[in-house]
């Protein structure tokens, strides 16, 4: 068994060790408190800086966006005006082309009418020549054929499909 002196020394060591640990803990708590306070103040300062930078960036973005929207609106007006001018030009060109086509069609119709008339006169002359030849060859003129009675026009069906049979 340990002696009284040993026990007393052991007790004093325990008490001294306890006091030492308690002082270290108090010191650690103080340091931790100071560090946390420093972190909080730095965090607040950074927050203020970030909010100030964000406010500046937001104002700059709003200004740039407003300028861009104004530019787009002006460009839109210019494009609309250009489109109106272009459409007006297309309309005028279309009208001119229509008049030109109508004039060409009238010329073609007159040419076809003249060519058809000339062809008919030529055919009539040939027919007259054939008749004269027959009259001379036969001695008597053949009688002209009687005109056929014209049949009433057929009623058109409403569908444009050819009849099936």
Summarize the helix and strand pattern as letters.
H
> In what range is the share of β-strand residues?
under 5%
Mean pLDDT: 86
Number of strands: 0
Instruction: Label the structural class.
Output: mainly alpha
Spatial shape: rod-shaped
Number of helices: 1
Poorly predicted tracts of residues: none
Radius of gyration: 58 Å
Q: Largest sheet, if any?
A: none
Helix content: over 70%
End-to-end distance: 137 Å
Structure description:
By secondary structure, this protein is mainly alpha-helical. The chain has one helix at 4-138.
Set out the fold topology.
Elements: H1 4-138
Task: Quickly describe the structure.
It is built from 1 helix and no strands.
Keywords:
165 residues, mainly alpha, 1 helix, rod-shaped
């Amino acid at each position: 068994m340990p002696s009284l002196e040993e026990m007393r020394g052991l007790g004093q060591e325990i008490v001294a060790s306890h006091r030492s640990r308690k002082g270290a803990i108090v010191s650690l708590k103080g340091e931790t408190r100071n560090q946390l306070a420093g972190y909080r103040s730095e965090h607040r300062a950074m927050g203020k800086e970030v909010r100030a930078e964000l406010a500046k960036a937001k104002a700059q973005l709003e200004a740039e966006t407003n300028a861009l929207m104004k530019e787009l609106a002006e460009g839109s007006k210019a494009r609309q005006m250009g489109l109106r001018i272009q459409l007006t030009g297309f309309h005028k060109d279309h009208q001119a082309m229509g008049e030109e086509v109508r004039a060409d069609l009238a010329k073609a119709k007159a040419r076809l009418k003249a060519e058809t008339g000339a062809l008919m006169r030529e055919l009539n002359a040939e027919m007259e020549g054939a008749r004269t030849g027959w009259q001379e060859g036969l001695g008597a003129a053949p009688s002209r054929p009687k005109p056929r009675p014209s049949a009433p026009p057929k009623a058109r069906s409403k569908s444009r499909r050819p009849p099936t049979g």
